Each structure stands twice: as structure tokens, then as C-alpha cells.
């Protein structure tokens, strides 16, 4: 009898699971949905150049310019808060069409405005459209994307925000040679072109499968999931998880696609009671999720990114770049750097996870902001014309800041917020996060000039560095990793039971009923 080999009891090592190829249909849906975010990026950056010509043409003051530049972020609150209920009522897809239509109207009003008051009206209309687009794009993408590529695809809205920023700078450069009364108008009117094509493109997209299940359209949801999942087995698993989260009994809707489950009697399919479960009587896991979302969105904007994007020419002038050509070139470099480094997060989100990128990003922002503030402080202490090396340090620090922001804080704030809420709370929860983001953006951009006049540019960036450091601590202790988790189970990471265990579902579970009807599709 042969002696047994000592290695017989050791299981053979398994080859690492191969990543499935990227689902091209889900990729196309994510790109089309995320392109709405171009509107926000374009509007922010085009204002940096348009304001120069508006001031000459309309004879308006710096204070009026400051308000005009930042107020759109406050106006966008209307759209972002309304988008949650709207998307639960008419669907994610038609909400994106509505966003494009509203922004189109706003761009026309701004471009044709005869006075400051009418421009402000146009900013309000455009702001509502921006709020809608900013909230709905990551929600739709997260709900369509397969688990293996959710981080990649949900980061696309930030990619297109940065693309919009770059296009706005290009528009400033392209039309700055026109007469003052035409140049700023053309810059705004060009912004009315993309929404037309975006609305048409969105109409070719499918509806979110999770929204379809909420409306009882199981057959439609199954067909969408079959196209956007990595395998038929994953499609069925995702459908089962969604049905369980909604409260549809197991086995219902598993037969013929012509069978439609009417879920309208289940509370929450159109957003009823959600605000109560989010704000008034949240469960402990939901409360922690809400704090995570609001905190992440707060620190994303409070660290000063929009001040750098909108007022970078002033920063560069302070650093010693006095000519318009040099300042414009440096500003273009900011846009290009911000857009380029967003691709780092796009490719690594699903490989290394959300937490490592967030913490690396916040750490890099702290270092670059301290470096920038220190360089500007040193420049203040030297005679004019004797700080040339420090000008280079300042420019490098600004580029390092936007690069650090783009590899983590920029895209992941939207990715993370869109994937942590339970299904029935997701739209309104993300709307609250978007609202926090826009409030902070408006507060930062509308106060930057006053702030640096009060405590100097160096003091302003030291303040932003302190806020970014506090954000690093918050993220380290409060945000769990979500990479690889299915959307219906992310609540477990915050201490919940998963599968949408919000308070109302627990309270009303015995009352839920499902009716079956047959309909010929």
C-alpha cells in the first residue's frame, strides 16, 4: 500500500476569478445618462470668461458678478430636491429629458437677456435644470450598471462634469475676440445646443429596472436586466434582489413576461412617506447612511474646488501671471488636468475600492492646499517681481489640488451616495445629498472674494486645507467600503438588515399585498 502524499489533503489553489468584460449596453446607457452632467461643468467654467464681457457690456459691479456666478448653485436646489419625487413618479429616463429641456430654456434666456434681472431669471431656470441632471444621472447609472462595473460607470457623471468645465474654457477662448455685447451671449447660447441632443439620446435608453419593478413592470425590468447584466444568472439574481427589496413575494412575476405585478398599492412606489423615513423617523442604519451621504457631499465642496475652478485666474494673477494670455493658459491647464485625472478614478474604482481612493484624494488635497497657501503667503512677503519661482510652485500646487480632487473626492462622492441608500429611499436620499452639494458650492463661490479680502488668499487656502483634513478623518472613521456589494445589500454595511429594511417596510410588511393582472405587451 503506497504511502499517502502529504499534499493530498491540501485543496488545489483556484485561479483568481476573471473579471467579466465590460457590458457595452450598460456602458452606452451610462454615457448617455451622464452626459447631462456636461451642463453643470460648462455653466460653471463658461461664467469665468463671460463675466469679463458682461461687466463691460452691462456695466455691472464685482458684487453682482459674484452673486451671478454662484447663485446658480443655490437655484439648483429646487431641481435637485424636486428630482427625487419626480423620478419616482415619471421615471428616471423622463426626468433626464425634463432636465435637458429646462436647461435649454435657461441657456436661451441667459444668451438673449437684455438686462441683469433677466440674466438672473435665466440663471434660475438653468439652475433648476442643473439640479435635476446632477441628481438623476448617478442614480440611473447605479441602478442600470452590473455590480462588476458599477463604480466605473457611476463615476461617469463626474467625468462629464469635467468635460463640461473644459468645454466652457474652450468656449471662453473661442469667442473672446467678438465684440463685448456679443461674446458673452454666444458663450451662453452655445450651451443650449447639447441639451437638444441629450434629450434625443435619452429617449433611446431603457428605463431603470429598479424603477420598473417599483411600478410592477416585472417583464420590462427582466428584459432590461438581461441586456445590462454580465450573465443571465446575474440578471435573474438582480431581479430577485430588487423584488425582495420592494416586498414582492418570491415566485411572483417569475413566469411569463406578459404577467405584470401591480405594486402600486405598496407604499413608496411613487415616493410616498419617504421623507418621513429619511428625516423624521429613520432607523439607525438609515440615519448613518444619511449622515455619510451628507457629510461626503459637504466635504467635497467645502474644501474649495469650485473656488479654484471659477476664480483660478485671480489666483494665478496673485501668483505673478499678470498677462491675460498666461492666465488663460494656466486656467486651461487646470481644466485639462482636472479632466485627465478623473480617468484614474474611473479605472481604479472597481479594482481598489472607494475608501483607498477617497483617503488618498483627501490627503493629496490637504498637502497641495497647504503648499499653495504657503507659497502665496511667501509671495506676499516679497517685493513684486521677485517671487517667480514661487509662482511656479503655486501653479503646480493648484494642478496637484485639482488632480487629487479628481482621483477620489470628485467622482466618488456621487458614486458612493448613489449606492448606499435602500431602494425606496434612494431617489430622495440622493436628492438631499445633491442639495447639500449645491448649498456648499454656492456658499463657497459666493463668498470667496469676500473671504480672501478678509483673510488673504493664503489664509483662505489654509482654511480649505483644514476642512479637507477634517474630511479625511470623517471618511476614515465613518465610511465603509462598498466595492462588490449589490445595491440591495449595501444597507448591511451600515448595520441594517439589507434588502431595504427601512422602518416603513418593517411596519407595513403584514399589510403588503400584490395583485396579478395579465396584460398583452
Produce the secondary structure layout:
Elements: H1 24-34, H2 38-58, H3 62-90, H4 92-112, H5 116-144, H6 150-154, H7 156-175, H8 180-190, H9 193-203, H10 209-214, H11 218-228, H12 232-246, E1 259-262, H13 274-280, H14 284-302, H15 305-319, H16 324-352, H17 354-380, H18 388-406, H19 409-420, H20 423-478, H21 503-508, E2 515-518
Family: Belongs to the major facilitator superfamily. Sugar transporter (TC 2.A.1.1) family.
InterPro entries: MFS_dom, MFS_sugar_transport-like, MFS_trans_sf, Myo-inositol_Transporter, Sugar/inositol_transpt, Sugar_transporter_CS
Pfam families: Sugar_tr
Report the biggest beta sheet as strand number plus sense, adding barrel if it closes: 2 strands, antiparallel
Class by alpha and beta content: mainly alpha
Radius of gyration over all CA atoms, rounded: 25 Å
Order of helices and strands: HHHHHHHHHHHHEHHHHHHHHHE
DSSP summary: helix tally: 21
User: Count the strands?
Assistant: 2
Averaging pLDDT over every residue, what do you get?
Answer: 81
What distance lies between the first and last C-alpha atoms, to the nearest angstrom?
69 Å
- The proportion of residues forming helix, as a percent range, comes to over 70%
Give the spatial strand order of the biggest sheet. 1-2
Binned strand content: under 5%
Taken from the alpha-carbon principal axes, the silhouette is globular
Low-confidence stretches: 4-16, 261-269, 500-521
Region (Disordered): 491-521
Domain Major facilitator superfamily (MFS) profile: 29-483
Keywords: Membrane, Sugar transport, Symport, Transmembrane, Transmembrane helix, Transport
Transmembrane segments: 25-45, 65-83, 95-113, 152-170, 182-205, 330-349, 356-379, 391-416, 461-479
